[in-house]
Amino acid sequence: MKKTCEANVRALPGAAVIELTGEVDGGAAGVLTAAYERAIADGDPGTVVLDFAHVGYINSTGIALIVSVLARARSQGRKVVASGLSEHYREIFDITRLSDFIELFGDLDAAVSQLTGLTD
Amino acid sequence: MTSVAQPDGRRLAVFAVASEPGNERMALARVAEAVAGHGLPAARLERLKTAVAEATMNAIEHGNQGRPEIPVDVEVIEDGDDIVVTISDLGGEHASAGPVEDPDLALKLEGEQRARGWGLFLIRHMVDGMDVTTDGPRHTVRLTMRTGVPGVPATEGGGHEEDL
Question: B4 near B141, Cβ under 8 Å?
Fold first, then answer.
């Protein structure tokens, strides 16, 4: 499937940020998996932030990918939080109950501020 | 076979997309263009777009088995204060519904359900009504979304209109 998603990974004290751009669908599988690998390779972060501010489309396959990342993170004792979701995708996170397991922040700055506060 | 009466109303668009991965994006864009200016608030339009994309993806993958030469047919009708979108493939009775049971995230996280299986669940939660009919090989999903604003004139981006 054509790849229409890109990921930028950066480390924070105690956390890693995966900034996603494009579309989170079946074509994002390799990108998301590789990004998660990079995220946890640097400093063994306790929290992984998924930033969706530059994502315009998430479909059911993308939801499944996020579920897989969440399952893997939980099995490793890591927390996953999300930022930058539009109102529509926040609703989908509520309907699917992802928001029961992933704390949602309005934007990446809010997530980072919270995480920085927690890790100081 | 279940039969559902065809809705009366005004056709806003009719088109087909090839059964290739990713073409659900084309379908949702054309439906959005067709219903623009027909009284659907922005948040409900986003919900309809998601439902159309998921139903089209099911038609491509499960109905037409990803065979590009078999089209997925899409029709958009305004029927009073309803927007009705029908999405048809030639897969006959098929398992586009995915699992019969609702997806359970807790079970998925424990590995007791597969991670996928969200498509029909999302559709059901996005629109006001969903009907599935099969007539021989033709399998049709009909999505209904109330505008709540009957009689809004089609003043912008009305797409290709045709009285039925």
Answer: no
pTM of the model: 0.87
Residue A108 domain boundaries: 5-113
- Find the radius of gyration of the CA atoms of chain B: 16
Q: Would you state the structure tokens that stand for residue B108, as one six-digit string?
A: 């998925």
Per-residue pLDDT reduced to its tens digit, A21-57: 999 999 999 999 999 999 999 888 999 999 999 999 9
Q: Compute the nearest-CA separation of A85 from chain B (Å).
A: 14
Cβ within 8 Å, pair A57-B22: no
CB-CB neighbors (< 8 A) of B127 in chain A: none
Do residues A25 and A61 make contact, with C-beta atoms less than 8 angstroms apart?
A: yes
Least Cα distance to B60 among B109, B108, B96, B86 occurs for B96
What's the domain range around B144? Answer: 10-148
Pair B130, B124: CB distance under 8 Å: yes
